[in-house]
Amino acid sequence: MIRKVRIKKILVSQPKPSSEKSPYFDIAEKYGVEMVFRPFIKVEGLTSKEFRQAKISISDFTAVIFTAKTAIDHFFRLCEEMRVNIPDTMKYFCTSETIALYLQKYIIYRKRKIFFGTSGKLDDPDLLKALNKHSKENFLFPISDVHKDNLSVLDANNIPYTKAIMYRTVSNDFTPDEPFDYDVLLFFSPAGIDSLLKNFPDFKQGDVAIGCLGAATAKAVTDAGLRLDIQAPSAKAPSMTAALDMFLKENMSDSEVESE
Q1: Which has the least CB within 10 A, 130, 135, 175, 195?
Q2: β-pair type (34-37, 9-12)
Q3: Kind of pairing between the strands at 2-3 and 9-12
Q4: Where in the chain is the domain with CATH 3.40.50.10090?
Q5: So what's the pLDDT on residue 3?
Q6: Rounded to whole angstroms, how far apart are CA atoms 87 and 62?
Q7: In the Cβ-directed half-sphere of 152, how many Cα atoms lie within 13 Å?
Q8: How confident is the model at residue 6 (pLDDT cuts 50, 70, 90)?
Q9: Which pLDDT does position 251 carry in this prediction?
């Protein structure tokens, strides 16, 4: 039996997984499709000159709030570039233990000055308890220009903080000779949709299937006048790979089947 597959090439707008055990590779083998990992967006750090324009003096702060490893990288990068000496008394508050442990890349890990939550969110009870206990500190909050953090919880708890944009999300432009012959496009943030339209202002969706992760990205797809074919999470598909597998399975069932 030969199964005719209409989907041949899928673009996953994320970096290639470091592990060969990724479900994406299983899907590629299962359906005989080519899986291409090519981010539409990339993170770019602000230069020290750009950061100084915000008139924020890092030395004025006694504590830092981190919600991402990327924020940690750019905080310490800018401190080094601007020759800011970070005192041993600086306290660090992280939304997860994973992020907290990442600090070991830059400092000696001491529990007395590093605090973290378990949920990965700012409203985590353990993190809020630590923030409230140290509410007299002056908090710096390194973020991206398009952060997703809900800061209202900090305001509601009267936590004194200053937002500091240290990095930004920019379009990862396609070169003129780079082929764009995909049958499925998978997006993970609204910025990815913006990049698609920036790179291809005359983009016509046609038979190209578009999938996305999260409600904000789904809204960006429909706001751009595009058709949303694959969405996660959902009751049946908690992840993007599960949603993609469901989509391909349904597509395969509609394919023509011929006898050898």
Answers
A1: 175
A2: parallel
A3: unpaired
A4: 2-40+179-258, 44-169
A5: 39
A6: 9
A7: 2
A8: confident
A9: 80
pLDDT at 77 over 70: yes
Architecture, CATH, for domain 2-40+179-258? 3-Layer(aba) Sandwich (3.40)
Query: Would you say residue 19 has pLDDT above 90?
Result: no
Task: Check if CATH label 3.40.50.10090 holds for domain 44-169.
Answer: yes
Q: How many CA atoms are closer than 13 Å to the CA of 117, on its beta-carbon side?
A: 20
Using one digit for the tens of pLDDT, what is the confidence trace for 114-127? Answer: 999 998 889 999 99
